[in-house]
Specification:
This protein has 97 residues and is α+β, with helices and mostly antiparallel strands. It contains two helices and eight strands. The protein has a four-stranded antiparallel beta sheet with strand order 6-3-7-8. The N and C termini lie far apart (31 Å).
């Protein structure tokens, strides 16, 4: 990948690139609410699926990933719950719990 993110990747049926573990695993959608984000950086420090923008807010590196517990952990450690992780096939909220 161009951003140097290590790991396997594949395309989902919609043609979106997904990264993480096995392409056969479940897929999760990552989102950050920029109106809530305070830029603590805890997410980017705990998961390679997030990065900090130049304006000091978090954003996901990819919108859709192969299920990865580090992404769930990042959502759980966000002090203002600005990050959501949901199952792409069911829409079920995975984190924050």
């Amino acid at each position: 990948m161009e951003d140097g993110h290590a790991g396997t990747w594949a395309e989902d049926p919609a043609g979106e690139v997904v990264t993480g573990g096995s392409a056969a695993a479940g897929r999760w959608r990552l989102a950050v609410d920029a109106t809530l984000c305070i830029g603590s950086g805890a997410c980017a420090g705990s998961s390679a699926h997030f990065r900090m923008t130049q304006d000091g807010h978090a954003e996901p590196r990819e919108d859709v990933i192969v299920a990865d517990d580090t992404a769930r952990d990042a959502a759980e450690c966000c002090p203002v719950e600005a990050i959501t992780v949901s199952d792409t096939s069911t829409g079920e909220l995975i984190a924050p719990a």
